[in-house]
């Protein structure tokens, strides 16, 4: 690139030196991650936390290996955090935290210990398994849910794209819990992780991370 003989700057450098030129710095709210509450995890996630306005998939061999504990600090924050519009004068409540087709009954005392605002929880139990995706998609796109957790019986690549688009539209965080075998299936999720537990602790395998790199983390709760 040639430089201007009088100023010693190249044409591009002269443009960038102009104070009227805006340089994009920083990240939007969507690009900034939602802190997981675990430093060991955040430092390996783009944006420093769970991807906002996107789909996250958590794969497990069986439920109860720490997959919900992963989410509790972030859900506690969302259940108390008012939308940005509220700071502009609108009196809004924090967004809803929707649980769609959980395979268990959420235990209020345990959620309270994690500082989850129970008044912002919605438990949705579709009568038919085919309605799980529809209910989650509607909740995500509504713009009133800060997060939507779902336990689908199955989730195709096309289904994951629908959830991803709904999360973007409603500016919500989608979390789908899936069996370990789903790892071999394609998905549009921004983040896909597998949780395993043994006598040494709980381990996290981040095998797909949009903008990041695969990594395996051991004893994440220690």
Name the descriptors:
222 residues, alpha/beta, 8 strands, 23% helix, globular
Q: How are the SSEs ordered, and which strands pair?
A:
Blueprint (H helix, E strand, L loop, with lengths): L10 H7 L21 H4 L12 E6 L11 H9 L15 E5 L7 H6 L7 E4 L6 H11 L3 E6 L6 H14 L2 E7 L11 E8 L2 E9 L5 E3 L5
Parallel strand pairs: 1-5, 1-6, 2-3, 2-4, 4-5
Antiparallel strand pairs: 6-7, 7-8
Helix pairs in contact: 5-6
Task: Describe it.
By secondary structure, the chain is of the alpha/beta class. It has a single domain, classed as Rossmann fold (3-Layer(aba) Sandwich). The chain is built from 6 helices and 8 strands; from the N terminus they run ααβαβαβαβαββββ. The protein has helices spanning 11-17, 39-42, 72-80, 108-113, 131-141, 157-170, and strands at residues 55-60, 96-100, 121-124, 145-150, 173-179, 191-198, 201-209, 215-217. It has an 8-stranded mixed sheet. The longest helix is centred in the C-terminal third of the chain and has 14 residues, at 157-170. The radius of gyration is 21 Å and the shape is globular. The relative contact order is 0.18. Residues 19-30 and 84-89 have low confidence and may be disordered.
Query: For the CA atoms, what is the radius of gyration?
Result: 21 Å
Spatial strand order of the main sheet: 3-2-4-5-1-6-7-8
The number of domains is 1
Helix-strand makeup class:
alpha/beta
Range of helix content: 10-25%
Kindly state the number of beta strands.
Answer: 8
What is the chain-wise order of helices and strands?
Answer: HHEHEHEHEHEEEE
Overall spatial form: globular
CATH topology: Rossmann fold
Number of helix segments? Answer: 6
Range of strand content: 15-25%
């Amino acid at each position: 690139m040639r430089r201007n003989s009088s100023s010693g700057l190249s044409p591009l450098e002269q443009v960038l030196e102009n104070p009227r030129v805006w340089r994009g710095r920083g990240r939007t709210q969507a690009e900034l991650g939602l802190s997981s509450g675990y430093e060991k995890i955040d430092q390996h996630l783009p944006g420093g936390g769970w991807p906002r306005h996107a789909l996250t998939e958590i794969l497990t061999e069986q439920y109860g290996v720490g997959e919900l504990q992963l989410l509790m600090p972030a859900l506690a924050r969302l259940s108390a955090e008012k939308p940005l519009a509220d700071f502009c004068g609108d009196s809004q409540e924090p967004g809803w935290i929707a649980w769609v087709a959980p395979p268990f009954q959420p235990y209020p005392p345990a959620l309270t210990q994690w500082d989850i605002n129970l008044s912002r929880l919605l438990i949705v139990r579709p009568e038919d398994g085919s309605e799980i995706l529809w209910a989650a998609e509607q909740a995500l796109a509504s713009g009133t849910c800060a997060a939507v957790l779902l336990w689908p019986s199955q989730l195709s690549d096309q289904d994951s794209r629908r959830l991803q688009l709904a999360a973007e539209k409603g500016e919500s965080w989608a979390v789908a819990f899936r069996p370990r075998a789903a790892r071999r299936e394609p998905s549009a999720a921004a983040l896909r992780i597998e949780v395993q537990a043994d006598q040494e602790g709980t381990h996290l395998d981040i095998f797909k991370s949009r903008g990041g790199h695969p990594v395996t983390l051991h004893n994440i709760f220690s």
